[in-house]
């Protein structure tokens, strides 16, 4: 028998007892459905987190700050005791000497001070002024609804505005606000005098769970805002830098990131990547979906006994048929393949139907979620599937089905043809 003949024969034999086969496939379906749905949720949530964080940082971006002699660490169940003589050490600064040391490290590129500034208000076409929070860009791409990313190399004042400011500033939509000029109110901390500075809107940032989707300014504007904020302050309070940003080499591996962190630690610094900051979120998501996937695995384990029972019954019912096939020259290997293919087909149909069910339910969940408990979280598709996850699920379930089917398949292959032909 050729491969295609064995496959056709296995598929035909599978449905000789339709009720028994269908019940076994349903058992596989329950496990496949549970696993597929939880994997879909895991993919959807993690994909959303990755998209949200792509505008804040990635594995190649690092925030560096001096090691703290005293901080917020807890000593067991007790907080650390305050020590007046170490007060200055609570917030150490990065000096020019430190920057030279960091820039000398071959593993780091684009080491720049992390700027902090305050904006009082933003004003557009209307007389109304609105309180606004903004930050400087770390050089990453943000998710935009319109326009372009800010350019840190130009000498113009550029700003990417948060989406919720568009209509409040007197503009019809995100496209109409592009290349328009807005006024920012900034206070001189030392004198209390308020100054105004113009900025051009080059893009509109999509709503985000990260940083509240706040507005972002380019490096040129950030430096001007810092200068205004520090006007009137004593010289010792100006140009204070408490953290720096740096870029690692492209396609950096987790192992290389650890080496860089260790090197910085030896130099007296601590460093964090975005992966460090959001790892706990992904761990929680993976933990919850992992537990649910485990329940699906238990269902598949139970279903595997159903496969064993189905094929054992099939071997018993077809004992004389097996004896006849062996008497006609069919080898043990082909007999084994015949029953193994029946097990594989049970796993295949169970997994396909389970995936189809999970996909359908997932679409309903997505539609309901967008209109109810996920309202406002634009871009979040709670249940997502990709080709890799689908093929993995089908492959694993078929492997489980194959392993379950090996026991009855071996029994069929070992049957003595003479004894089998005499079986009643």
Compose a concise summary of this entry.
This protein has 10 helices and 14 strands. It has helices at residues 3-14, 18-53, 96-103, 219-230, 254-266, 274-317, 319-327, 332-371, 387-414, 417-422, and strands spanning 61-66, 74-75, 78-79, 109-113, 121-123, 129-130, 134-136, 144-147, 158-162, 181-187, 194-205, 215-217, 244-247, 269-273.
Written description of the protein model:
By secondary structure, the protein is an alpha+beta fold. It has two domains: 3-53 and 280-422, no CATH class; 61-274, no CATH class. The chain has helices at 3-14, 18-53, 96-103, 219-230, 254-266, 274-317, 319-327, 332-371, 387-414, 417-422; strands spanning 61-66, 74-75, 78-79, 109-113, 121-123, 129-130, 134-136, 144-147, 158-162, 181-187, 194-205, 215-217, 244-247, 269-273. Strands 5, 6, 7, 8, 9, 10, 11 and 12 form an eight-stranded mixed β-sheet that branches. It has a four-stranded antiparallel β-sheet with strand order 4-13-1-14. The radius of gyration is 32 Å and the shape is elongated. Residues 70-76 have low confidence and may be disordered.
The 3D shape can be described as: elongated
Low-confidence stretches: 70-76
Write the H/E string, N to C: HHEEEHEEEEEEEEEHEHEHHHHH
Helix coverage percent: 40-55%
Number of strands: 14
Q: Whole-number average pLDDT? A: 83
Query: Compute the gyration radius: what is it?
Result: 32 Å
- By DSSP (H or I, 4+ residues per run), the number of helices equals 10
Q: Strand count, sense and closure of the main sheet? A: 8 strands, mixed
Task: Give the tally of structural domains.
Answer: 2
* Derived structural class: alpha+beta
Strand coverage percent: 5-15%
Spatial gap, N to C terminus: 26 Å
């Amino acid at each position: 028998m050729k491969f295609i003949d064995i496959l056709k024969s296995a598929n035909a034999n599978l449905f000789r007892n339709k009720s028994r086969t269908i019940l076994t496939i349903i058992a596989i379906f329950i496990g496949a459905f549970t696993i597929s749905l939880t994997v879909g949720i895991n993919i959807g949530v993690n994909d959303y987190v990755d998209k949200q964080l792509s505008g804040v940082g990635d594995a190649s971006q690092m925030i560096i700050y001096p090691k703290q002699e005293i901080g917020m660490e807890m000593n067991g169940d007790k907080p650390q005791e305050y020590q007046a003589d170490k007060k200055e050490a609570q917030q150490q600064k990065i000096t020019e000497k430190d920057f030279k040391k960091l820039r000398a490290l071959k593993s780091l590129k684009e080491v720049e001070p992390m700027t902090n500034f305050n904006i009082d208000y933003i004003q557009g076409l209307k007389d109304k002024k609105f309180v606004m929070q903004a930050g400087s860009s770390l050089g990453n791409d943000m998710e935009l609804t319109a326009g372009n990313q800010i350019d840190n190399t130009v000498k113009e004042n550029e700003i990417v505005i948060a989406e919720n400011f568009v209509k409040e500033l007197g503009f019809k939509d995100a496209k109409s606000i592009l290349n328009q000029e807005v006024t920012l109110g900034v206070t001189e901390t030392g004198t209390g005098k308020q100054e105004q500075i113009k900025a051009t809107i080059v893009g509109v940032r999509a709503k985000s769970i990260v940083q509240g989707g706040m507005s972002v300014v380019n490096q040129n504007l950030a430096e001007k805002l810092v200068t205004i904020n520090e006007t009137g302050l004593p010289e010792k309070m100006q140009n204070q830098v408490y953290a720096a940003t740096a870029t690692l080499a492209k396609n950096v591996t987790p192992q290389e990131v650890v080496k860089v962190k260790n090197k910085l630690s030896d130099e007296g610094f601590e460093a964090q990547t975005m992966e460090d900051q959001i790892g706990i979120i992904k761990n929680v998501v993976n933990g919850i979906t992992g537990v649910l996937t485990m329940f699906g695995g238990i269902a598949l384990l139970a279903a595997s006994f159903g496969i064993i029972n189905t094929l054992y019954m099939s071997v018993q019912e077809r004992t004389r048929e097996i004896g006849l096939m062996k008497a006609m020259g069919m080898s043990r290997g082909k007999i084994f393949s015949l029953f193994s293919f029946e097990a594989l087909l049970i796993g295949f149909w169970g997994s396909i139907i389970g995936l189809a069910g999970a996909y359908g339910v997932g679409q309903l969940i997505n539609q309901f979620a967008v209109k109810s408990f996920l309202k406002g979280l634009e871009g979040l598709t709670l249940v997502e599937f990709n080709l890799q996850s689908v093929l993995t699920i089908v492959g694993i379930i078929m492997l489980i089905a194959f392993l379950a089917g090996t026991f009855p398949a071996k029994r069929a292959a070992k049957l003595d043809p003479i004894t089998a032909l005499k079986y009643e």
